[in-house]
Amino acid sequence: MPPIAVIDFETTGVSPGQGARATEVAIVLLEKGQVVDRFQSLMKTGAWIPAFITQLTGITNAMVNAAPDAAGVMADAARFVGDAPMVAHNAAFDSKFWQAELALAGVAAPHPFACTVLLSRRLYPQAPSHKLGTLVDYHGLPRTGQAHRALADAEMAAALLARIQHDLRTQWRVAEPGHALLMALQRCAKPGIGKLLAQHGEIAPTALQAVPAA
């Protein structure tokens, strides 16, 4: 399978449409369940970081004022990703900042996004919640770095994605659970998950009964 780029942003707010800007970006390239490369940078946009964001992330206005300009960081990030498809935990959030920051840098953003929140809801409805930290603990995955920093969160999202792909291989016998299947799976209504995965694997009909109900 080709590599997948797992991304995480730290930002000044919840939406670029409301004027929020990115403060940090990190991208982890995952290939065959293994991390093969990493990209991380703070970025200077001129946007003010509210005190509660600094308290959450540890990123200060002084840190971003000393960072490279956002346009250059995003151009480098786009080159790093290339044409790899992308994944994020809560992709509705990160994809908006990816598109908005690249647009400001004058760079195209054609990359499709899959979302580990949506995938988790379909495959692990019994999980206590679908927050990244909760899922990392639920699956016994390693916690890396400082929570609410982009690289640590991207690393944990990549580990979760690797676990999802592993489970699709071992439990559903899907030989290559690539990005296209992930996209289809996150759009699939829960009653249709077994049928969808059966079309991509070698699942015995009785296994279709094993999809846990939400």
Concise structural overview:
This protein has 214 residues and is α/β, with parallel strands linked by helices. 43% of the residues lie in helices and 15% in strands. It has a single domain (4-210), classed as 2-Layer Sandwich (Nucleotidyltransferase, domain 5), CATH 3.30.420.10.
Please describe the topology of this protein.
Layout: E1 4-11, E2 22-31, E3 34-42, H1 51-57, H2 61-65, H3 70-81, E4 86-88, H4 91-104, E5 113-115, H5 116-123, H6 132-138, H7 150-170, H8 179-187, H9 193-200
Parallel strand pairs: 1-4, 4-5
Antiparallel strand pairs: 1-2, 2-3
Question: Can you put this structure into words, describing what you see?
Answer:
The protein is an alpha/beta fold and 214 residues long. It has one domain: Ribonuclease H-like superfamily/Ribonuclease H (Nucleotidyltransferase, domain 5). It has helices at residues 51-57, 61-65, 70-81, 91-104, 116-123, 132-138, 150-170, 179-187, 193-200, and strands at 4-11, 22-31, 34-42, 86-88, 113-115. A five-stranded mixed β-sheet has the order 3-2-1-4-5, sandwiched between helices. α3 (70-81) crosses α4 and α5 (116-123) packs parallel to α7 (150-170).
